[in-house]
Amino acid sequence: MIFGSFFTSFINYVYHLVMGRILEPSNYGVLAAIISLVGLLALISSSAGMVVAKMVAGAKDENEIDEQIETYNKYGWLLGVIFFLVLLLLSPLIAQFLKVQVFLVVIGLFVFLLSFPASMVRSTLQGLMKFKNMVISQALENLVRLAGGVVLVIVGFSVTGGLLGLLLGVFVGWVVARQFIKNSFLKPKNSSSAITFTSMLKSLTPFLLLSISITSLYSSDLILVKHFYNSFDSGIYAAFSFLGRIIFFGVSPITAVMFPIVARNHSMGASNGLVLKMSLLGGLIVALIVNFIYGFFPNFVIGQLYGDKYLVSSNLLIFFGIFMTLVTFSFLLLNYAMIINRYRAVWVSMCMAVLQIILILFFHSTMFTIVIISIIVSSLLLIYLFSDLFFSRSRIS
C-alpha cells in the first residue's frame, strides 16, 4: 500500500511538473488556482469518504458492510449533485475572484462532482483494507490525468486541456474502483437500515470540518496569492507550493493505512498508541529527507523539476517544506483524533485555518510574509494537537 501510494503520488507530481514546463508560468498559475479550488471543494467528498472508511472498518459482518456500501454511495451522489448545482450558480463570482474564465471553473466543478462517487468507493476499499485495489484505481486515475492532460495541452488546449485530463482521470478512477466492489451492489439488502441521509450528514460534520481546515491551510494561501499577485508571481508561488506538498502526499499513504487499523482497534477497545507512534516516525523520516534536499539543493530541485524560469526566490523552497511538514503531521494527528471521537481538535484546526486567511488578507506584501504566516499558524495547531493527544490527562496509550 505505502509503496504503491508513493508511486501514485509520484505520478500526481509528474503531472504538475510537466504542466509547469509546457505551460508558461502565468497559465500554470491559472491551472494551479483551479486545481486548488477543486481541492478545497473536494474536501466535502473526501470527508464523506472518511465517514465511509470508518464505518466500513468497524462493521460487524459482511451484510452490514454491503448495506453501508450501497447506502453511502447513493447518498454520496445525492450530496454531490446538491453542492454541484449550488456552486454552478456561483461560478461567475468564483471566476471573477480568481481572475479566470468561467468555463474553466465549470470544468473544475465537474471534476468536483465526480469526486463524490470516486471517494465513496475508494474509501470503501480503504475501510475493507483492500489497499492494493485502492492503489490501482488511484494510479490509473493519475496516469490517465497525466497522459490526457499532456496530450491536450500539446495539441493546443492549454489550461483547458490540463483540466480535461483531470476530469477524465477522475472518471476512470471511479469506474475502476467500483468494479472492485460491484458485487456489493448486486446483493439483496436488509430494508431495516438505520442509515439515513440525515445520520450521514451528522457523521459527516466533524470530518468535513477536518478536511476544510487542512485543505484550507495548504490551498487558501495559493488562492489568495492568485487574487493579490499577477499571474507570473502566482505561477512561481504555485510551483513552490506544490513542491512543498510532496511531503504531504508522501506521508498520506501512512495516514491512509493507519486510519482503518485504528478504527478497527478502537471499535474493539484495543490500544492504538503504538500504531500512532509508528505512523509519526514514518512521516518524520519522509519529511526530514525532503526538507534536507530543499534546504541544501533548492536550485537543483526547482531547475530540474520545473525549469530555470521558476528559479526566482528559490531560497523560499525550504520554508514551503517546513510549512507542509507542519500541516502533514497536523493532518495525521487530526485523523487519529477523529477516529477516537475527540472532536474538539477539529474546532481548533478550523480556528487556525480562519486565522491564516485573516492574517494573509492583512499582510501579503511579499510571498515570504505569506509563507511565514502559514508556518506560524500551522505550528500553533500542531503544538495543540501534540499536547492534547500525548500530554493531557486522557493521553493515548
Q: What does it look like?
A:
The chain is mostly helical. The protein has one domain. It is 85% helix and 0% strand. The protein is built from 13 helices and no strands. The longest helix is centred in the middle third of the chain and has 50 residues. The radius of gyration is 20 Å and the shape is globular. The relative contact order is 0.13.
Features of this protein?
mainly alpha
Beta-strand percent range: under 5%
Count of distinct strands: 0
Radius of gyration: 20 Å
The largest β sheet comes out as:
none
Query: How are helices and strands ordered from N to C?
Result: HHHHHHHHHHHHH
The overall pLDDT, averaged over residues, is 83
Principal-axis shape:
globular
Q: Spans of 5+ residues with little confidence (pLDDT < 50)?
A: none
Distance between the termini: 26 Å
User: Structural class, please?
Assistant: mainly alpha
Number of domains: 1
SS summary, helix count: 13
- The percent of residues in helical segments reads over 70%
What's this, in brief?
The protein has helices spanning 2-22, 25-57, 62-98, 102-127, 131-180, 182-186, 197-228, 231-267, 273-296, 298-305, 317-339, 344-362, 367-390. The protein is mainly α. The longest helix is centred in the middle third of the chain and has 50 residues, at 131-180.
Topology summary:
Layout: H1 2-22, H2 25-57, H3 62-98, H4 102-127, H5 131-180, H6 182-186, H7 197-228, H8 231-267, H9 273-296, H10 298-305, H11 317-339, H12 344-362, H13 367-390
Helix pairs in contact: 1-5, 1-8, 2-3, 2-4, 2-5, 2-7, 2-8, 3-4, 3-7, 4-5, 7-8, 7-11, 7-12, 7-13, 8-9, 8-11, 9-11, 11-13, 12-13
